[in-house]
Amino acid sequence: MAGPHTTAAGPPRSEQLRKHVESRHIDHIPASLRHGRPWQQFAFWFGGNVNVFNLVLGGVVVSFGLSLYWSLIAIAVGVAIGALLIALHATQGPRLGVPQMIQSRGQFGFYGAAFLFPCVVFLNVVFIAAQLIVQAQSLFAITTALAVPVWILILTVPSVIIGIFGYRWIHHVMQGTAVLVGISLIIMLIQGLSYSKGLPASATSTTHPALGLFCAAVALLVIDMLSFGPFVSDYSRYLPEDTSGTRLFWAIYAGNVLATIIACGIGAFLASLLPAVVASGSVVNAVSRVCGTWALVVLALSLIGANTFNAYTGALQVLSFGNMFGRLKAESIAARVLPFLAVMAIGVILALLGYRTFVPTLESFLDVLLVIFIPWSAVNLADYFIVRHGRFDVASFFTASGQYGRFAWRGLVAYFVGLGAEAPFVSQPPRYVGVLVSHLGGADISWIVGWIVAAASYLILARTGGGRPAAAGSPPAL
Predict the structure, then answer these.
(1) Tens-place pLDDT, residues 187-200
(2) Upper half-sphere CA count for residue 50 (Cβ side, 13 Å)
(3) pTM
């Protein structure tokens, strides 16, 4: 006879359920668990960017004072640059089989990389909060029967369920999002083009904007893309190690570029179409006016998967920090799920406390992130592609006595040199304006300077002895 928790057809239901719940976390993914194809990464990142958040971001670009013509150019330039960086970071996933920030121990050391983990967690919880607020506002615009905080709590539920199941489910949801929201945005664009009032004359101006405004818009889109950099490999680490780096690069690059330009472009178009409506509320108001309530429902659903992967990767940062004090069991559902729930809860609390004022201040938050993560990106990519040629001792990522040591001074020095080089070029009024900003017409080029200086510093320091590893392996495909 079958036991009390079994069925005649097979094992207990709880055991069947566990097979569908991811149990791996920050440890290396063995070959037996590797799966997937590069095209799935295209669908994943397309689904991760074709959403209401980027629609709102497109409206923010227009709010800088750019015409629609120059807004679209700034969006395209910023996205093209930012996506280039994150696609390069993502190719490290299949090769190394570990989360992105764990791999950063190769540049900064076992303890030296510790400052990155809370920075990424902070990034994750802020994005969770901002996205939940935008989603809730979309649904509140349909019906005021439920308050924004109630919508926030309702929208959290599906994100939590997806995250509990883990990696595979996140990918499946993103693929579905790519199709549903992609088609919806095309319909929204058609509705916008047929809107009877048309674009005001100011929106179609081709007059060159102030350099500072244009650079600020480009930088906003660069960091919108680069914000994925610290965890982009988290979602490619299950791919087989022999995955073509070139195919993976182009799949991720194309998915990010196409989705973000489409979503931001439509947001910029709708903001230009109804500037008065946007000024009195948000791009969501313009969507409701032009496209109807159906679009708001789709847009609200578009960020469910994005909420999940922010909490998912935040959990990996918590575990990475905890790993400094002891090796974690490689397979543990509880070890992955509990920090996931904690990160999600913090994001939800931030959303509940700040839903009235949080989103308008998001631009300032992104500006700060740009300063912090640009030097990290430069050091990481210079090390992986130029210094070590993709050759790493993965086991050393998990021990302070490994090949990369407790503190890797070359990476840390290069990072802080790059950070310092950014300071004179940062333009974030009223908080801080660098001494050289006025000489550049108010343009913020700190991210360009910081990236080049940090990369160059690391390459110079790597030649001072001991910078090139002894770990075996063939160079990456790219």
Answers:
(1) 999 998 888 677 77
(2) 28
(3) 0.89
